[in-house]
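Researcher: Let's walk through a ligand-bound prediction step by step. First, I give you the protein sequence. Second, the SMILES string for LZUJQKHR. Third, you return the three-dimensional complex as structure tokens. Ready?
Model: Ready.
Researcher: Here are steps one and two:
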Amino acid sequence: MLSLRAPPRTFSPPPWRRLGRHGGFAAPRCASAAAPAATLETAASPPASVSFPILVNGCTGKMGVSVAEAATSRGLHLVPVSFSSRENLGKTIQIGDTEIEIYGPSSREDVLSSVIDEFPDVVVVDYTAPDSVNSNAELYCELGVPFVMGTTGGDQQLLYKSVQDSNNYALISPQMGKQVVAFLAAMETIAVQFPGAFSGYRLEVLESHQAGKLDTSGTAKAVIACFEKLGVSWDMDRIVKVRDPEQQLYMVGVPEEHIEGHAFHLYHLTSPDDSVSFEFQHNVCGRSIYAEGSVDAAVFLHKKVQSMDPKRIYNMIDVLQEGAMR
Ligand SMILES: NC(=O)C1=CN([C@@H]2O[C@H](COP(=O)(O)OP(=O)(O)OC[C@H]3O[C@@H](n4cnc5c(N)ncnc54)[C@H](OP(=O)(O)O)[C@@H]3O)[C@@H](O)[C@H]2O)C=CC1
Ligand SMILES: O=C(O)C1=N[C@H](C(=O)O)C[C@H](O)C1
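Model: Step three, the predicted complex:
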């Protein structure tokens, strides 16, 4: 198992363990202070050709704000309402010209019903917390409001069941970044085409995220599910989760300015006789690729609802396959 201390038997350890900060490892060329990231404002994305109301749930959090900003800059109508797990927060969040009112759990059903009355074609995008996934989804399904679930965790089986039973529209994905979605799609294709091709291989998985991330990476779980179809046996407890900023800085090589917003993933496979190894990495700094992908997801879902598409439950691979990701 990938440990932060013990190297594997034969192969030299993966770069995350081998090297110090930024040392040699093809460290992600995340934008640094010297080369500022293209912000949503400077990315100059043309406005979406469609416009519809979008309610971003979780605007007290980091993804909520990023998605609300991306939606506004793509010309969508941001509904000035969001929710919190806390009552009487008495807080508003300013996104561009829109002042978003934050409501607590006791008023969420009434407030959301009023929003739906006023904006019947509203799409909700959810970036809240793992322990809210199922109760939020149940509310959206009960009120028949289409939703994009970007929040990871919760009971995923129950989530799908709630949508199926209610006949609601939903797009669910632990990963909204276009290029990572493409990697995941490739993994799923390989798993379907060559089941068992990696039988007997050992898998080691390490994921590093900002300290505030509550759950294990949903993306890592989805990639591991593909490795399992390829014949690798795995126990989810074996994922090495890095949440300590010091380790992220000096062991993983996360640029300092992205300690509070990054997603580094490493998958290392070794053959039973140690003669063959594979390594896959995807390292993201910041949140803009998820925010842009979430708006793509909302636009896609809105289109599906308007055309009364019979499928009703989608993921980001569906969006990518339709060429609907920027
Ligand atoms: N699919 C994807 O591509 C991505 C998914 N994610 C996932 O999105 C989620 C959020 O991430 P992030 O923004 O970084 O986390 P944050 O902790 O910054 O934000 C989450 C926010 O959700 C709010 N919240 C918690 N419970 C509820 C509730 N019941 N109703 C409304 N709001 C609630 C919290 O605020 P309060 O205290 O006010 O309730 C908090 O501000 C995580 O599950 C993460 O894994 C993140 C990035 C990309
Ligand atoms: O919490 C995050 O930040 C992220 N969560 C998603 C996950 O759990 O896979 C996607 C990405 O890793 C960022």
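Researcher: And what stands out?
Model: The longest strand covers residues 262-270. Residues 288-306 form the longest helix (19 residues).
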